Amino acid sequence: MEPIKIMPCLDMKNGKVVKGVHFVDIKEAGDPVENAVFYQAEGADELAMLDIAATLENRKTRLEWVKNVSNVIKIPLTVGGGIASLDDIDMVLAAGASKVSMNSAAVKDPGLIRRAAEKFGKGKITVAIDAKRNAQMPSGFELVVSGGTLPVAKDAIAWAKTCQEQGAGVILPTSMDGDGTKAGYDIPFTRAIADAVTLPVVASGGAGKLEDFYEAVIKGGATILLAASVFHFRLLKIQDVKNYLRDKGLTVA
Prior knowledge:
CATH superfamily: Aldolase class I
Distance between the termini: 11 Å
CATH topology: TIM Barrel
CATH architecture: Alpha-Beta Barrel
Oligomer: single chain
Order of helices and strands: EEEHEHEHEHHEEEHEHEHEHH
Radius of gyration: 16 Å
Strand content: 25-35%
Shape: globular
Number of domains: 1
């Protein structure tokens, strides 16, 4: 198994790091540059920065945010939000991102994943999959786009397979049911994605205690562990998470 990586996530709005619950009830959680410096010093393996309002506001990712953060860190930075074309990817990578994360635009045009992977390399292309429970779907999970506001009547697990076929390098599934709750990752959803693809899967949405990170690996099949609330509000330290996983016998980056 690949060494487990820890990935704090900076959800961005109006130039500030924010955090919500179930994609709403947004609260400020500090300055992105200060947070990025802090997390790198704490031992983060990667960093995610998601412009959560870009798609809803029908605009591109704020490139100045990408530049400001990428200038102060050496760890890989994955940037998402409002990425809808090869030109968008080009600009975000040029601004200092190591990888991009696409979501709504890929659902609208799955071929964008393939074209992006061919042009930039699949290692730079992450596809984020937001979903919520819906018993009408074959897997029980429905794909949701536009920052969690628009269910699209597509099965989220079938979509993960399509993303892999189109050339995605990483899958980042977030359960809207778990987001921000600190009640634990949505293990059934994460596991369903991990079982459907052979790509690295990022566990996202709901981490609240040390055991949650371990369960995401052992029960969920994730190899990258994304978290926001527990790190932003200093409930857990990254090294505490890594030490806990090592003590449990896992190989950590």
